[in-house]
Amino acid sequence: MPRVPYHDTDSTLSEEQLRVFNHIEESRGNVIGVFAVLLGSPSVAELIADLGGYMRFDSILSPLVRELTITTALSEYSCQFEWAYHEDFARQAGVSDSAIEVIKYKKALEGVSEVEA
Question: In degrees to the nearest 10, what's the CA dihedral of 44, 60, 103, 110?
Answer without folding.
Answer: -150
